[in-house]
């Protein structure tokens, strides 16, 4: 196993001609894909990895400067694909990883035949003629809560993000992966994500994008999926799912997995 593979806990499962790469979002790790993987491994090669800073990664490898922008994560993704000698893949990215995949595809469009975006947003802050869902004061309060008592913040944030109560399996799972992050790293990652503005690069994305979105999502209003569809440079399609929460692949697998499989297996023209 190469250095990059080891650092990101890369796993390759299944067999098949088509390669599927799964990228997780903030506060989770590759375990967030547990409901989807069994449906893919029989006829695809599935590549799983952890973003640097996720709980299972070595916190000593986390470079606060490198990961102060999303480009740092995009470089990691490209390094993983290079080390595994991937020539083309379908990239399925959740939340921030959807945008990371889009950024990586600008540099190497040949490596991506399609990007499936789940709960993706290029900017979380409201702006003139743009509704991202948050005001700066909202984010300042979120960061301060993380800074002052990280465990208490996790306990409150997890049910809001997932869209369930603390007794639900999905909320408990998200709480676990949130708790596993080192608090200072979690705060830095959250600041990088929530303060990012990637709207200006969307037009440079030429790879076909399938945008799937929960009907109700604390972090990403439905209107953001339409914004992505309108502003991405290549072909795109939007599907709003009858699911609730920012981690629908974890909280509503019965609804979401069939949708994801359809978008993975079929092209926009179909």
From TrEMBL:
Which Pfam families does the entry link to? Answer: Abhydrolase_1 (PF00561)
Superkingdom of this protein's organism: Eukaryota
Tell me which SUPFAM superfamilies the record gives.
alpha/beta-Hydrolases
Q: Which UniProt keywords apply?
A: Hydrolase
Task: Give start-end ranges for the coiled-coil region(s).
Answer: none
Q: Which InterPro entries match?
A: AB_hydrolase_1 (IPR000073), AB_hydrolase_fold (IPR029058)
AB hydrolase-1 domain: residues covered = 20-252
Q: One MF term in GO for this entry?
A: hydrolase activity
Read off the PANTHER family from this record.
ESTERASE-RELATED (PTHR43039)
Q: Which family does the record assign?
A: Belongs to the AB hydrolase superfamily.
- What is the protein name given in its UniProt record? AB hydrolase-1 domain-containing protein
């Amino acid at each position: 196993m190469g250095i990059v593979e080891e650092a990101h806990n890369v796993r390759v499962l299944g067999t098949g001609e088509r390669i599927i790469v799964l990228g997780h979002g903030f506060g989770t790790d590759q375990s967030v894909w547990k409901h989807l993987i069994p449906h893919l491994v029989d006829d695809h090669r599935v590549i799983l990895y952890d973003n640097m800073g996720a709980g299972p990664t070595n916190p000593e490898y986390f470079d606060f400067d490198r990961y102060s922008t999303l480009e740092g994560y995009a470089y990691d993704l490209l390094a993983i694909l290079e080390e595994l000698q991937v020539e083309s893949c379908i990239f399925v990215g959740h939340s921030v990883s959807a945008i990371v995949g889009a950024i990586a595809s600008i540099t190497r469009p040949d490596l991506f035949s399609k990007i499936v975006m789940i709960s993706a947003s290029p900017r979380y802050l409201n702006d003139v003629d743009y509704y991202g869902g948050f005001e700066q004061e909202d984010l300042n309060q979120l960061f301060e809560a993380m800074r002052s008592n990280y465990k208490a913040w996790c306990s409150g944030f997890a049910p809001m993000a997932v869209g369930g109560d603390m007794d639900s399996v999905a909320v408990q799972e998200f709480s676990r992966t949130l708790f596993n992050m080192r608090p200072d790293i979690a705060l830095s990652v959250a600041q990088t994500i929530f303060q990012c503005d990637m709207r200006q690069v969307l037009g440079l994305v030429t790879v076909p994008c399938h945008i799937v979105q929960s009907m109700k999502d604390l972090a990403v209003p439905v209107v953001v999926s339409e914004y992505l569809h309108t502003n991405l440079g290549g072909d795109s399609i939007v599907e709003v799912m009858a699911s609730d929460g920012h981690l629908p692949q974890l909280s509503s697998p019965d609804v979401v997995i069939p949708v994801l499989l359809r978008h993975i297996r079929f092209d926009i023209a179909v």
